[in-house]
Amino acid sequence: MSYLRKRLQEFDQGSALKLYPSFQTVEQLAQRWISAMPDDGASHSGLTHIQNVERICNDIIKGDRQAIPLNQVEIFILLCSIYLHDIGRMYKNRYKSRKREAVDDYLFDEDGTYIAPKARSLQKIERAIDALTQEIAKDTQEKKAAITEKHLDQNIKDALDGEADPHHAFYSYYYILMHHNEMGLFDEHIAQQVALVSLLHERKIADKLLSTMFLDNVCVERFGPLRIAWLGAILALADEMDISYHRTLPEFLIKDLFASQTATKKADLRQQIVGCTIDLTSRSLLVFPSEKLLSKKGVLLQKFIEDLQNKMSLIKTWWPIYKQMDLEIRACRVSFNGHLFKSVEGNLRLALEPNLAQYKLLNVINAMFRLRFGVFGKSYFSWQMLSNESGIHDIEQLKMIARRLERLSGLWSRPLRDEAEQHPSDPLIPEYFKNNNDKFILRIVPMDGEWTLNIVLPEKPSNQKSNDNQVETVKTQFVTALKSLFEEEADNG
């Protein structure tokens, strides 16, 4: 049983409200539409997505730290929103199917053979799609009018205005409000909050609502104040993490699936992602692509970069709310081969942890050199000694910096490769970090209880002064590369 479900049961034991049985009712009724969800080309069914979102929500709330403090009603609303937030897809999928049929009627014969379209056929397709678009717009306005009669706050109305073909989150909002009894939500006030949290998993609508004070003062009679923005932020992040990276098919099903070109675009991208996780030490959302994805040039890699940009937009939208929850995620980074990259103007560039300040990194590398080559007879040092020397008292952060320096020193020390020997990440490495001569090799080695730093020189120095000079040269060149990386980070935001 998940953490959220256990907490809800624990609350029920000491409360007059018994919400866990009510959630079970919502869950059971939701199975009707979840089981009817078509395969989107990258998951087994809608249920796979729902289960993954619930699991990720549990990880976000509990994780490896003190849990985000949600009350009984907030947990109930979040669990119901997890199961109902995509119900609007049923409506959207019907129109997508009709649009596809309108096109296919003119492009394929009865046997499914492709027919090169004539000008007249293209005109008919255009008219059919225009008629369908007008039908969607009319139906959307009717649904907005129906919601307005029942319940529609002016802030929500303003957020939805101008959307002729709204995101499926709007339709989820509509169906939960208008048909909440059929979904097991018998309290209309709670149904309104479940509908609102489901609506907030669409970033653009959330952006508009967060710009007002509307989400800051949600109070439901009988249940008290509710942190709806917190619930929306958690659901939006879990949904985004699952959509791209967890809904993948097993290998033996890929060939059959990829017979469809429309499925390939979505599913092939997801097959090339190893995982996506939250790293609170670096305050990042980390994405782990496969080597195959980075080695490709073309549409798939560009789709991946677009997806990273979407994640950055989501983080910017919800960052103040995540900070309130002590879930301070500042950026999205690609983690590959131990190195971090970020999206810059449609490309991937070498990057650092977003919470890593230049002075801290330079303090640590200078302290490492002072200890390693200034303390006679010692080559291994404790983390506490490095903490005292560098002035960084958080040992976990110190270890994170040392691990990043380990990777960067290995990258800087690596000689240039021939094109035939290149690794997929090589084109992503800036020129100033490529070792144009193989005279020096710098190795920083962090371990559990201690660390060390080693330098391989091209030839044994004739005396101590010569040795000191070469050590200083290595440090100067490496620090220069680090400063260049920080300058590029600053330029790219």
Give the helices and strands, then pairings:
Blueprint: H1 3-13, H2 19-34, H3 46-61, H4 72-84, H5 89-107, H6 119-150, H7 154-160, H8 168-178, H9 188-199, H10 203-210, E1 219-220, E2 224-225, H11 228-245, H12 251-257, H13 261-271, E3 273-279, E4 284-289, H14 291-295, H15 299-324, E5 331-336, E6 339-344, E7 347-351, H16 358-374, E8 381-382, H17 383-390, H18 395-413, E9 441-446, E10 450-456, H19 464-491
Parallel strand pairs: 4-5
Antiparallel strand pairs: 1-2, 3-4, 5-6, 6-7, 8-10, 9-10
Helix pairs in contact: 1-4, 2-4, 3-11, 4-9, 4-11, 5-6, 7-10, 8-9, 9-11, 10-15, 11-15, 16-17, 16-18, 16-19
Describe the protein in words:
The protein is of the alpha+beta class and 493 residues long. The chain contains 19 helices and ten strands. The chain has a five-stranded mixed sheet, sandwiched between helices. It is elongated. The model is unreliable at 248-264 and 417-421 (pLDDT under 50).
Which term fits the overall shape? elongated
* Number of helices in the DSSP assignment: 19
Radius of gyration: 27 Å
Largest sheet: 5 strands, mixed
What share of residues is helical?
Answer: 55-70%
Low-confidence stretches: 248-264, 417-421
Distance between the termini: 42 Å
* Overall strand count: 10
SSE class = alpha+beta
Average pLDDT value? 79
DSSP strand content = 5-15%
**Strand adjacency order, main sheet:** 3-4-5-6-7
| SSE sequence, one letter per element | HHHHHHHHHHEEHHHEEHHEEEHEHHEEH
